[in-house]
Amino acid sequence: MTSRNYDVVIVGAGSVGAPLAMSLSEAGVSVLCIDREASAGQGNNKCAIGGARATHSERAKVILGLRSLEVFRNWKDDYGDDIGWYQGGYTYVAYDGDTLELFRNNVPLQQEAGLNIRIIDSREMLRLVPGINPEGLLGGTYSREDGSANPMKCCYAFHRRASALGAEFRFGETVTGLESSDSSVTAVVTDRGSYSCGSVVNCAGSFATQIGRMDGVDLPVAPESHEAGITEPVARLFDPMVVDIRKAPGSANYYFYQHDTGQVVFCITPEPPIPGTDIRETSVFLPQVAARMTQLYPRLANLKVRRVWRGIYPMTPDGAPILDSCGPDNHYVAVGMCGQGFMLGPGIGEVMARLITGSSTDDDRVVLQDLRLDRAYSSEEALK
Length: 384
Ligand SMILES: Cc1cc2nc3c(=O)[nH]c(=O)nc-3n(C[C@H](O)[C@H](O)[C@H](O)COP(=O)(O)OP(=O)(O)OC[C@H]3O[C@@H](n4cnc5c(N)ncnc54)[C@H](O)[C@@H]3O)c2cc1C
Known about the structure:
The chain is an alpha/beta fold. The chain has helices at residues 17-26, 59-79, 97-112, 122-128, 151-164, 208-213, 285-296, 341-356, 362-370, and strands spanning 2-11, 31-35, 51-52, 90-94, 117-121, 139-143, 147-148, 168-171, 175-181, 184-190, 194-202, 222-233, 241-244, 251-258, 263-270, 305-315, 322-325, 331-335. The protein is built from nine helices and 18 strands. Helix 1 (17-26) packs parallel to helix 5, helix 1 (17-26) runs parallel beside helix 8 (341-356) and helix 2 (59-79) packs across helix 8. The longest helix has 21 residues, at 59-79. Bound molecules: flavin-adenine dinucleotide. Residues 11-17, 34-37, 42-45, 47-51, 174-175, 203-205, 207, 226-228, 267, 311-314, 337, 339-343 line the site of flavin-adenine dinucleotide.
């Protein structure tokens, strides 16, 4: 079956593909978005715990984060859907001088990029997160405009708006190949048909490398397993997402926040990383993260954990996404979202839509320069 020609075919209706379909439709572009799952956001989008911040140490991610926060914050007023937005802020805690020094070095760059962030002392931290362990607490950072939202509600909302604007979605359909002639992709082939297109965008998350290879392009994106969990709901204990970037045996940073419906949601970064696509929950995760969380915030010891789950971070060597075209000029990539695809998705959708329609802004050019495919990948983000 060959259907009509689309200006743009997007592979993947996840954290990035769904908002991109919306932004392209807003620009009047005809869009087809294909996903092998049964509905939008069923890939890694649904594994995300919903943290949304602009607190990053790289300017491109600060810019994308700020714009995405604006979309999350205003969504209900603009379009009416409840996406679970809660502006609780983010706080990075410091219990040693090196960590505080790292924050002190980052904050000016973050402020310069437009982030409302500041260093707070231990007294203010104790007010912000009542019950946090005061022993050795030096303070940390606080960015009050960060927050959280529900990744599934967001993805559905983006999908609904994109559809209302005319975007087409085909679910339960797997992209199996790309057809090219001269130096252009001409059609996207699936297990159910073939769709001719003006451009294609690879938003395939942890399967991005497979799509790249269909055009002979090797993308530096590797899957890594990460686990998360959620407690029973309780009355509000604290507002911000709490991030502790200290390392401990078997883990690097961990973070937790209280959802707008009362549950505490949490995640930890395994150290060394666990490469691969295994999404079976482990018996290591819960004891490991619980010990660290209750040491930092003893009141959590009273909460029951309801559920844990495991998903994939599509990692790049430097922890930042890749936004570019690759191989043929009309083959675009928005891949390698690492642990931040949900929080950056709306901003990335807009930047990619303007790139494709030839209407990039000055800020977009900064982002696209920093996140291009042929960058050195030499730095590693401090606040990943
Ligand atoms: C435990 C955990 C917690 C996380 N917490 C957060 C968080 O708090 N905040 C945050 O910002 N991020 C978080 N993340 C990371 C976030 O989930 C990812 O960065 C994000 O979902 C990646 O977005 P994506 O659009 O690239 O991929 P996805 O959302 O996975 O979308 C890719 C889509 O492509 C489809 N696809 C792939 N191949 C094909 C094909 N051949 N044909 C058709 N369809 C295809 C898939 O079905 C999928 O729906 C977390 C991740 C995990 C695992």
